[in-house]
Amino acid sequence: MKMPCNSVGLTTTEAAFIEQARNNGELYIAQPYQLYSEDNHAAWKSLFGRMRPQWERFANEHFMKGIESLCLDPNRIPKLDDVNQFLNPLTGFKAKAVSGYVPAYLFFDCLSNREFPTTITIRRHDKLDYLPEPDIFHDIAGHVPMHTDKAFADTLVRFGELAKLAVEIGSEIKDEDEKLHRLNSIIKSLARFFWFTIEFGLMKGKDGMKVYGSGLLSSFGEIQYSIESPLVQRYPLQLEWVINQYFEIDHYQPLLFWVESFDHLFSLVTELEQWMKDGKLNNVSPGEPLVNEEDLRSFLAVEGA
């Protein structure tokens, strides 16, 4: 791709490079590291610096080991190639640069292949708490340290493989309206499970309640709120609750679920797979998140290929 000469950095929603990639229909891209501005690096430094004490207090031990294993520079945005040199030998995972939103089936497929779609832009330095969409701090400092843990990585792969099962189930339904209804319900179920585990999951162990969800691990305010606020309801994860529970993304979460370990989480993914086979995901409760047309098409395209 020809580099846009008027680029002044890779700031979220303001990067000319990303806009051009999207206009060209390029989803998987290279990280143009030379385009990061000093303001971009300053944003990373500020985010990393203020999160470190929060991680030490509230993050689970597997995350803290992951932070150390990745050797992330607290002062400069990491190069994904460098991250992958540390990550890949541990679990086979790698961070894969993308230009923006990844349709649901493609996202699941990446996970099943031990690839994590990674945003390369970063939020503005003067708006550290405002996140209009995921950025590289959320993805690399929030998600990727968890990918260094074998049990967690295997769980992600198993979860990603459920998309193929959803396509197989859809291909067996001849009535188009019924097919769309079931796929919509299944995708909604998977999105809710991902939200309440991978993004906003808690773990209850010998050291009390800790955070493993990446949405919490990358949020300066909400990580403490999730553990200490009396306004948060915290329950052991039960599939029937999670797949029928809507969520909203524009405020701190009032309801969170905890697991005992990543082996426990893996068993829940196995149970989720069986529920899909048994038809228990075909008619979950309506509400958020709404399944957009792009996500639905991504599943139908595989079936029709």
Description:
The N terminus is likely disordered. This protein has a single domain, classed as Phenylalanine Hydroxylase (Orthogonal Bundle). A four-stranded mixed β-sheet has the order 4-3-6-5. Strands 1-2 form a two-stranded parallel ribbon. β1, α5 and β2 form a beta-alpha-beta unit. The protein is 51% helix and 9% strand. By secondary structure, it is α/β, with parallel strands linked by helices. The two termini are 28 Å apart. α7 runs parallel beside α12.
Number of helices: 13
Main sheet summary: 4 strands, mixed
Mean of pLDDT: 94
What is the name of the CATH superfamily?
Aromatic amino acid hydroxylase
Count every beta strand, where a strand is a DSSP E run of 2 or more residues: 6
Estimate percent helicity: 40-55%
Number of domains: 1
How are the strands ordered across the major sheet? 4-3-6-5
* Distance from first to last alpha carbon: 28 Å
CATH fold name? Phenylalanine Hydroxylase
**Secondary-structure element order, N to C:** HHHHEHEHHHEEHHEHEHH
Radius of gyration: 19 Å
CATH architecture: Orthogonal Bundle
Note the overall shape.
Answer: globular
- Highest CATH level, the class: Mainly Alpha
Percent of residues in beta strands? 5-15%
Instruction: Show unreliable segments.
Output: 1-7
**Which structural class best describes the helix and strand composition?**
alpha/beta
